[in-house]
Write a structure and sequence with these properties.
303 residues, mainly alpha, Rhopdopsin 7-helix transmembrane proteins, two-stranded antiparallel sheet, globular, membrane, GPCR1_Superfamily_Member, Olfactory receptor 52A5-like, GPCR_Rhodpsn_7TM, GPCR_Rhodpsn
Length: 303
Amino acid sequence: MADNNSLVGGGFSLRQINDRVIIVQILVMIFLCINLLLIITFFKKECFYTTARYILFAVTLLSDSLLLFMSDILFIFAYFHFTLQVWMCIIISVVVLLYVTVTPVTLTAMTLERHVAICMPLRHGELSSTRSTMHCILIIHGLSSVPCIVVLLPFFVSASLSFCKQYRICSVEMFILYRWQDHIRSAVHQFYFLIMCIIIVFSYVKIMKVAKAASGDDKKSTRKGLRTVVLHGFQLLLCLIQFWRPFIETTVLQIDFRLFIEVRFFNYVMFNLAPRCLSPLIYGLRDETFFHVLKMYVSRRNI
């Protein structure tokens, strides 16, 4: 009998399964290699790890890399019906649940940083100091831990020690013991979605007003900041859509299991993997300073 928590089943051939696994592994390896290269570049120049927007960029790279690695492990285990002891699954799930939220929250913080830099330049140095950025990173992780706590706290209270030693196919849904728990998780995700969208729109409108009033070099810089906010908004949208995945997949599962597997694979590639390739595009290639240091590092490695 097919397990609904797995991605295997529904009449798929072994070749189809292997092709999908190979595609995902190629994408994950490419994204991880690019992220690793950018992380190394980040530490090559002092201005990167003393500037707020670059520090937050590095946080997204580390968050995305860790999430890619851990979610890929879950993907492989689910596809081939590998089982883990529940306590090991808890550790993996804590990382996944935390960092699946860290990236969108950090993107929101980066948008606010651009808003402060363009709309409040006199306060930018104070609000974007290294000390303030470190505090911001702690706040980001604190906010991102709320959905994780909502999912896992009732499980820790209710589950027995013997259950934690059992072998199961690792899935976050395994920790949803009560219907109200799923409702609260959904409410938290929707609340985050709403707040982040409001911040993005607010920042865009404010920067747009400054762009209209600016002239010369200031206008060029403001326009670039505006485009960055738009790209952040698109990346954030892709990240936030994954909060709606459980609703979509649960509905599809009730209709047809084979379609559910197709939709779940599409969601994983589109809303888990795709957003993770946009950070290098936004900062690794568009930012002139970062791109210059990256090009110098790559050139030296090729000599």
